[in-house]
Specification:
Largest sheet: 7 strands, mixed
Mean pLDDT: 95
Radius of gyration: 24 Å
CATH architecture of the largest domain: 3-Layer(aba) Sandwich
Bound molecules: nicotinamide-adenine-dinucleotide
Number of helices: 23
Number of domains: 3
CATH superfamily of the largest domain: NAD(P)-binding Rossmann-like Domain
CATH topology of the largest domain: Rossmann fold
Low-confidence stretches: none
Helix content: 40-55%
Strand content: 5-15%
Length: 554
């Protein structure tokens, strides 16, 4: 990518730090892979053992260490140490072992790492902007060494995965997501910036913990909170014009309104709302392909009407409208049940994001009652309520549908509405199943059924690559619709057979590149691009992707 010298180009060694300094620079460090000539030129003789490793040998040693760790948190700590020491090696092992490491660098282990952040902390990463920094945000961003930042992931730590308010401990999330931007889509790590807005926490255990690293005060709300977010958005755009800002793990009270406030003003999106929506929509596209029906014929009942659920609903409505339904008809095909029962028009004090799905229908007290009324073809769980797709509910779906679509998307695994095994067993293997967290394949009647994992990492890295490639000024719903379509097509073409809901993670860089092309095309078509349109967009996108190979310095 621009800003990164081409690989293997002879560099002027005068510009490079020497001796111990280059070993301390994770972006430049090659550890034992520095060649004889480099060791001589960079003052490294004697600072490294004699044997010169290939990158493959370094990977072998790193994997031996990684796999010897007794648990996933220790694996996370080990990987973080590699990341801090030798960035190229970190991305090499992450890319080459993405299926094995995804649950460690991201959900569920990253959640545990966030909970323990103040206790496992080794070395800082990212920018912390606290509420006490109001009026000084630009000077804080000025301290960050990167100059050509193209992607920022920001959290305020209030709703970390399914774990709630973790305050400044939430920094693990932007760090983890940005490492996936690089691993899954080849966004140059030098162009990424993790940010935590430290506005306090309402979690008593953290406030009482002397090792908690955030500000020890209750969460700031209201005007000062909004001023801090606003100052950050403006300072980021002044310092890095057009930078894409991904909002991550904000609570609903802020996530929807911040998205509405900024989506038409700057290049931004909310992954919990829009990224989740695209990955779920892709799963539905795949499901209707498997069933041989059309999306506009589906009736979808949601359990959970939070950011994820309503985000998915809104994008499904747009996708159904693309298939010819009018908006009202499309909305009537999506019903929501939340903790107070079916979302209906007559309910009082409905949160604004639920109102477009509050239909003029009789109330129903719970999911089972709503299911009887609606007779859905698909159920989508985004409630965080473990086991809420009970045997009775799943069997009822199987009675009314030849191929019931059952998506239990709540994370982590322990919160899934049902397991893959439950869904397949209770439907005699007829369910088209996907989950938020991974489940192992299930044997039913001599067949092996592989559940799909609706991981947001299928969408946001490729979307980001497309936005960066085109220099897109906005992130639009049309881009998410296109990304969902591409992901579903990649599932169909992945060679795992007709029943495949999502492609294997091992194909993620190919999937991301295809999504990037589709997203960039939209930016060019809609006049939202600031970069000139290349003649061969797929080749241009492929060339833009960071590859973790060592540079030859001399
Ligand atoms: P949220 O807190 O905004 O929403 C949760 C919703 O569930 C609320 O509407 C709440 O009323 C409802 N709910 C809670 N208990 C209920 C009950 N007993 N009965 C009925 N409804 C109940 O959270 P969110 O951001 O929407 O995320 C929800 C879940 O989706 C989380 O577990 C999250 O991990 C998961 N998620 C998955 C993916 C993915 O698979 N790619 C992406 C994002 C979120």
């Amino acid at each position: 990518m621009a800003g990164r010298p081409p690989l293997n180009r002879e560099r002027d060694i005068a510009d490079l730090p020497k001796g111990a300094d280059i070993l301390q620079n994770p972006r430049l460090n090659k550890d034992t892979a520095f060649t004889e000539r480099e060791r001589a030129a960079l003052g490294l003789r004697g600072l490294l053992p004699a044997h010169i490793d290939s990158q493959e040998e370094q990977v072998e040693r790193a994997m031996e260490n990684y796999r010897a760790k007794p648990n996933d948190l220790e694996k996370y700590i080990y990987l973080t140490a590699v990341h801090d020491r030798n960035e190229t090696l970190f991305y090499r092992i992450l890319i080459d072992h993405i299926e094995e490491m995804m649950p460690v660098v991201y959900t569920p282990t990253v959640g545990l790492a966030c909970q323990r952040y103040g206790h496992i902390f080794r070395r800082t990463r990212g920018v912390f902007i606290s509420i006490l920094d109001l009026g000084k945000v630009d000077s804080i961003l000025a301290n960050w060494p990167g100059e050509d930042i193209r992607v920022i992931v920001v959290t305020d730590g209030e709703r970390i995965l399914g774990l709630g308010d973790l305050g400044a401990n939430g920094m693990g999330i932007p760090v983890g997501k940005l490492s996936l931007y690089t691993a899954c889509a080849g966004i140059d790590p030098a162009r990424t910036l993790p940010v935590t807005l430290d506005v306090g926490t309402n979690r008593r255990e953290l406030l009482d913990d002397p090792l908690y690293l955030g500000i020890h005060r209750e969460r700031c709300r209201g005007e000062d909170y909004d001023r801090l977010v606003d100052e950050f958005i403006r300072a980021a755009n002044e310092r890095y014009p057009g930078v894409m800002i991904q909002f991550e793990d904000f609570a609903n009270i802020n996530s929807f309104r911040l998205l509405e406030r900024y989506r038409d003003e700057v290049c931004t999106f909310n992954d919990d709302i829009q990224g989740t929506a695209a990955v779920a929509l892709a799963g539905l596209h795949a499901a209707v392909r498997i069933k041989g029906s059309a999306l506009k014929e589906e009736r979808i009942l949601f359990l959970g009407a939070g950011g994820a659920g309503v985000g998915i609903g809104e994008l499904i409505v747009k996708a159904m409208m693309e298939e010819g339904l009018d908006e009202g008809d499309a909305r009537r095909r999506c019903w929501f049940v939340d903790s107070k029962g079916l979302v209906v028009k007559s309910r009082e004090k409905l949160a604004p994001h639920k109102i477009p799905f509050a239909h003029e229908i009789e109330p129903a007290r719970d999911f089972a009652a709503a299911l009887e009324r609606m007779k859905p073809t698909a159920i989508i769980g985004v409630s965080g309520m473990q086991g809420s797709f009970s045997e009775a509910i799943v069997r009822r779906m199987a009675e009314g549908n030849e191929r019931p679509v059952i998506f239990a998307l709540s994370n982590p695994t322990s919160k899934a509405e049902c397991t893959a095994e439950d869904a397949y067993r209770w439907t005699g293997g007829r369910a088209i199943f996907a989950s938020g967290s991974p489940f192992d394949p299930v044997e039913i009647g001599g067949r092996t059924l592989s559940p799909g994992q609706g991981n947001n990492a299928y969408i946001f890295p490729g979307l980001g690559l497309g936005v960066v490639a085109a220099g897109a000024t906005r992130v639009t719903d049309e881009m998410f619709l296109a990304a969902a379509r591409v992901l579903a097509d990649e599932a169909a073409a992945c060679g795992l057979g007709e029943e495949c809901v999502y492609p294997p993670l091992s194909r993620i860089r190919k999937v991301s590149a295809s999504i990037a092309v589709a997203v960039a095309q939209i930016a060019y078509r809609r006049g939202l691009s600031t970069n000139p349109q290349p003649e061969d967009l797929p080749s241009y996108v492929a060339e833009e992707m960071y590859v973790p190979e060592y540079r030859r310095y001399v």
